[in-house]
Design a protein that fits this description.
This protein is mostly beta strands and about 300 residues long. It is built from three helices and 22 strands. It has two domains: about 120 residues, Trefoil (Acidic Fibroblast Growth Factor, subunit A) (Trefoil); about 120 residues, Trefoil (Acidic Fibroblast Growth Factor, subunit A), CATH 2.80.10. Strand 4 and strand 5 form a beta hairpin. One of its GO terms (molecular function) is phosphoric diester hydrolase activity.
């Protein structure tokens, strides 16, 4: 029996959900905190990854693991013969079962407390209405991500350095350059022409800073961080070189744009007004400045 890639895990006995806290269950399903990705490892064996924090359930059930290192982070998930529509979730390394108590595993024959309902949930989709534009500046060297994956620029040039952040409902974002329309990805030396997997998704992790609006930018697939060297990603604990500032940049709306953007147009030079083509169409396309439009 095939299992869904994205799912919720609800205990059949107490009707509560596994979530992003190893020692707590949630009374109601709330994505992305209660959303999981099942990564198949063959023979009914899976890694169970929480979509919200990117961490994995493991045999040390009171904590989550940052990566899959062995059988401790793998689980055998099979239908329960005694309770139709439910499953047992057994750790491969210690042979113990997930139970109705979040911070415990059950040793021995599974009973009613060890039955789980696995419900398919919708694939994460981008919310284009919530997309926003900005510049991505490394706080350590004050240089900007641009249209060359292996280079940084010292000034935020439009459109070369202008970035579109496209949120997904799993809490991640795609990061698209607005000059070449391509996406930053786990293979950081090259850019992708579309989002096809977690390789092109990033997690923005807020960092406490006097400057504000500062983040670690962590790739979902390889869990490495953008760093001050454009052609590299940083593995391990992030430091000062991995802190990025998102500088918002206002883009005019193209639908009824004269009335919708009066304040924007009235308070900025033409060269600084961004007018993205097809902004309201749901398509991802290139922005231009209003001065470019007037020259055409």
């Amino acid at each position: 029996m095939s299992l869904p890639k994205l799912c919720s895990l609800q205990n059949a006995d107490n009707k509560k959900y596994r979530c992003n806290h190893a020692t707590k269950l949630a009374s109601d399903y709330n994505p992305p905190q209660c959303l999981f990705e099942l990564l198949p490892y063959g023979n009914e064996t899976y890694a169970i990854k929480n979509v919200d924090n990117g961490e994995f359930y493991q045999n040390h059930i009171r904590s989550l693991a940052s990566s899959v290192k062995g059988d401790g982070q793998l689980w055998t998930i099979v239908p329960d013969a005694e309770a139709e529509g439910t499953f047992t979730i057994q750790n491969v390394e210690n042979g113990e079962y997930m139970t109705s108590h979040a911070g415990q595993l059950h040793k021995g024959k599974p009973g009613a407390n060890e039955h789980w309902v696995i419900e398919a949930r919708e694939e994460a989709k981008p919310d284009l209405k919530a997309s926003f534009y900005g510049f991505l500046k490394n706080q350590s060297n004050n240089e900007y991500r641009c249209n060359h994956a292996s280079q940084l620029k010292d000034k935020p040039v439009v459109p070369n350095c202008l970035t579109k952040f496209i949120p997904y409902d799993d809490g991640t974002v795609a990061i698209q350059n607005q000059d070449n329309y391509e996406f930053f990805q786990s293979s950081i030396l090259t850019m992708a022409d579309r989002v096809t997997s977690d390789a092109q998704k990033w997690r923005l992790i807020e960092v406490d800073s006097e400057e504000g609006n500062t983040f670690y930018v962590k790739n979902v697939q390889n869990e490495e961080y953008m760093t001050s060297k454009a052609s590299q990603l940083h593995a391990g604990k992030p430091g000062k070189d991995e802190v990025w500032v998102i500088e918002p940049f206002d883009c005019a709306q193209t639908s009824s744009w004269m009335s919708s953007n009066a304040a924007l147009i009235g308070n900025k030079p033409l060269s600084e007004i961004c007018l993205p083509a097809s902004h309201d169409s749901g398509r991802i396309s290139a922005p231009t400045t209003l001065s470019m439009v007037l020259k055409q």
